[in-house]
Amino acid sequence: MQTNIEDAYTQLITLLDQHGAHYRLIDHAPEGRTEIVSPMRGNALSQAAKCIVLMVKIGKIGKKITRYVLAVIPGDARVDLQAVKSLMRGTYVTFASPDIAERLAGSVTGTILPFSFNPELELIVDPSLLENEEIYFNAARLDRSLVLKTGDYIALAKPRLGRITEGRGTSPGAPLHS
After folding, report:
1. Is residue 146 in some structural domain?
2. Domain around 39
């Protein structure tokens, strides 16, 4: 798995450098839990990009297809599974198994990037995360985080935006037009 982790990290840094993104790296003790690593980095939980891989079933009985979503939300929020299901027009949603999440994301749990380099993984970001000037996330490694200007993140990640957190914004699953 070390090769995949290094590949995801290298892919990220290459993408950021190629596009002249404004970012900085922070080395810290190995940690993947947002609520613990955020104080190490010196950021508010609301600035942290919490990345969760979900499995969504779409379609009718006998013709269901499985889709995977990378839900990116602020570190102080909880993902609203029903909102994701509604946004995807799904019939069922759950957390992806760790092995599937790690395979699709290219890194281990706790280090999943708020970018999708895999066409099987659809990126959906809650807009409340984007209210920050910068976002913080583990850089596909437990011992290194990255701080990225939000404008650069939006330009490079090109996320689908949707209200996918519990108790935030307007109606759950409401699509956003930007």
Report:
1. yes
2. 2-161
* Contact of 78 with 166, CB cutoff 8 Å: yes
| Count of structural domains, the chain | 1
CA separation (Å) from 122 to 1, 115, 133?
22, 9, 24
The count of other CB atoms within 10 Å of the CB of residue 2 is 7
CA angle 176, 123, 28 (to 5 degrees): 115
User: For 134-153, what is each residue's pLDDT tens digit?
Assistant: 999 999 999 999 999 999 99
SS3 content of the chain, % helix, strand, coil (to 5): 30, 30, 40
* DSSP line for 71-115: EEEETTS-B-HHHHHHHTT-SEEEEPPHHHHHHHHTS-TT---SS
Q: Is residue 133 part of a domain?
A: yes
Q: pTM of the entire structure?
A: 0.89
- Looking at the chain, the whole-number percentage of residues with pLDDT higher than 90 is 86
Q: How far apart are CA 150 and CA 23, in angstroms?
A: 10
CATH number assigned to the domain comprising residue 37? 3.90.960.10
Token match 């993947």: residue? Answer: 32
